[in-house]
Amino acid sequence: MAGLLTRVSLCVAVLAAQPVRAGLFDDDEARRQIKDLTIKTNERLDTVAKGQIELANQIQALRDENSRLRGEVETLTYELDAARKRQQDFYVDLDGRLRKLEPLTAAAGSDPKPAADEGRAPADPPKKASSDPAAEAREYEAALNLFRANKLKEAAAAFETFARAHPDSSLTPNAYYWLGNAQYSLRDCKKAIDAHRVVASKWPANSRAPEALLNIATCQQELADVKGAKATLEAVVAKYPDSAAAATAKQRLKK
């Protein structure tokens, strides 16, 4: 009887121990899966964090590059404005010097007064509309001062008004020349070409003519008219071989 009770007790103990072992095994598997999931999650978080850091670095690099480029643009803009101002000052100084030489050139090239036929009274010279050289000079200087002050639109309008009001003035070729320069500074090459062509065609012997042709060639190049620019530069060299404009044209034709 005692042996039977012992065997029954052992069976009960074995049966009671099996669920415990199964529970232990289930907990270990769950812990392993949780650990694996934690490792994978951490790896993904590390990857995302690294990506965010790289993206932040790229954004900062782009900001730095943008700041650098902005600084270069501002510097170039300042240098361009300064160069235009120096060019305008040079033009104004050159204009003053040429205007001093023009009366001497006109006097040297003037034709002598023809002698009257014997026995006949000299014919009266054709009457010309009265003009006030001093007033013309003031108008011209006012337009030139606008150009000097970099008021390009106002200067262009003033030079055009002067040229139309005084078509026969000795200052009219200069007015058209400066009108072309003002239009070029306003980045309107077509109008600049029109103004300079008036100088070159209507006053080919004027000291402004070779420079006007050279400016036309510059505008043609900016308008991608390579053939036209080449022809204009060749015309400068052919028509005005001893001018400073011809020397510049030769250098540009070599490029």
Radius of gyration from the alpha-carbon trace, in angstroms: 45 Å
Can you summarize the main beta sheet?
A: none
Task: Tell me the helix content.
Answer: over 70%
Give the number of domains.
2
At the fold tier of CATH, the topology name of the largest domain is Serine Threonine Protein Phosphatase 5, Tetratricopeptide repeat
Poorly predicted regions: 104-129
Instruction: Give the distance, in angstroms, between the N- and C-terminal Cα atoms.
Output: 125 Å
Q: How many DSSP E strands?
A: 0
State the shape: elongated
Q: Averaging pLDDT over every residue, what do you get?
A: 76
**What's the CATH superfamily of the largest domain, by name?**
Tetratricopeptide repeat domain
Q: How are helices and strands ordered from N to C?
A: HHHHHHHH
Count of DSSP-assigned helices: 8
- SS content category: mainly alpha
Strand content: under 5%
Highest CATH level, the class of the largest domain? Mainly Alpha
Q: Give the CATH architecture of the largest domain.
A: Alpha Horseshoe
Provide an overview of this structure.
The longest helix has 108 residues. With 255 residues, the protein is mainly alpha-helical. It has 8 helices and no strands.
Question: How are the SSEs ordered, and which strands pair?
Answer:
Blueprint: H1 2-109, H2 133-148, H3 152-165, H4 172-185, H5 189-202, H6 209-222, H7 226-239, H8 244-254
Helix pairs in contact: 2-3, 3-4, 4-5, 5-6, 6-7, 6-8, 7-8
Question: Outline of this structure?
Answer:
This protein has 255 residues and is an all-alpha fold. 80% of the residues lie in helices and 0% in strands.
